């Protein structure tokens, strides 16, 4: 019937169709935000281009090699590059919106206390993502220097613009997403998939996997870039463990005493 509203499940459960509708709605909101950010990126294309090509220009100045340059390979390369950089800017600018939409979809049914904790943590996800992007931009000149050092003597390094900016934008976005590790860990704790004790118990394996992932994600073979990503991620992991343990303790305090009794023991009730 028109005007009829669905009754909300007190435990936060949703039917599959409701989940799909929720996913579609949040995906549309994220897409519209990304498009709005891409329009801004299209308008300010020249400053964005100059800023992202600055690490390459710095390497060119330090190397003193006039044959190191960015090259547009065909007639459509300039237009395609403007579109791709605009989308990249859209991803960065709209990050507060799509991060919130992702978080709200993962953990829809929370208690009032959990919502307060999660709200504080999702607000930290935005600076975490931007900090990861900033770390990547800081590491770019070093990464380029190492990569270009493999060029044989006498050869030139004429870089295709599409290849260079594809490398740069992926490098920056990967660092930004990697810095969201604690957000996803807390989301799993909120969803009762993991607990703080499990995360603390597995810290050795987690740190090892973090540094392996850092070595795989970063496109350079040197330990500097790997440590640049791995060390902050390890620190963020332990920060997520601390928040997860706090959530565990609050849940335990809110549970009745008989919840911890074994199945074969009678409760005081």
Structural key phrases:
269 residues, mainly alpha, 10 helices, disordered N terminus
Walk me through this protein's architecture.
By secondary structure, the protein is mainly α. The chain has one domain (16-253). 72% of the residues lie in helices and 2% in strands. The chain has helices at residues 16-43, 45-63, 77-93, 95-106, 112-148, 161-178, 181-190, 196-201, 203-217, 223-254, and strands at residues 69-71, 158-160. A two-stranded parallel ribbon has the order 1-2. Helix 4 packs across helix 5 (112-148).
Concise description?
With 269 residues, this protein is an all-alpha fold. Strands 1-2 form a two-stranded parallel ribbon. It has helices at residues 16-43, 45-63, 77-93, 95-106, 112-148, 161-178, 181-190, 196-201, 203-217, 223-254; strands at 69-71, 158-160.
């Amino acid at each position: 019937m028109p005007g009829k509203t669905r009754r909300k499940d007190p435990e936060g459960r949703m039917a599959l169709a409701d989940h799909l509708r929720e996913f579609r709605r949040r995906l549309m909101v994220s897409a519209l935000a990304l498009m709005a950010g891409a329009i801004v990126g299209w308008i300010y294309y020249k400053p964005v281009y100059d800023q992202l090509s600055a690490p390459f220009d710095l390497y060119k100045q330090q190397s003193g090699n006039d044959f190191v340059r960015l090259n547009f390979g065909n007639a459509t390369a300039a237009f395609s590059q403007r579109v791709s950089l605009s989308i990249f800017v859209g991803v960065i600018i709209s990050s507060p919106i799509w991060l919130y939409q992702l978080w709200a979809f993962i953990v829809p049914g929370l208690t009032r206390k959990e919502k307060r904790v999660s709200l504080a943590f999702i607000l930290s996800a935005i600076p975490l993502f931007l900090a990861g992007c900033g770390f990547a931009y800081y590491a770019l000149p070093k990464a380029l220097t190492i990569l270009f050092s493999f060029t044989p003597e006498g050869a030139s390094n004429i870089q295709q613009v599409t290849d260079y900016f594809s490398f740069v934008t992926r490098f920056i976005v990967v660092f930004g997403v990697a810095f969201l590790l604690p957000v996803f860990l807390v989301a799993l704790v909120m969803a009762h998939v993991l607990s703080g004790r499990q995360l603390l118990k597995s810290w050795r394996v987690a740190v090892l996997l973090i540094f392996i992932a850092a070595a795989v994600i970063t496109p350079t073979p040197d330990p500097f870039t790997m440590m640049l990503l791995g060390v902050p991620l390890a620190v963020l992991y332990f920060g997520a463990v601390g928040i997860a343990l706090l959530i565990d303790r609050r849940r335990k305090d809110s549970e009745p005493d008989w919840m911890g009794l074994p199945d074969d023991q009678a409760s005081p009730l």
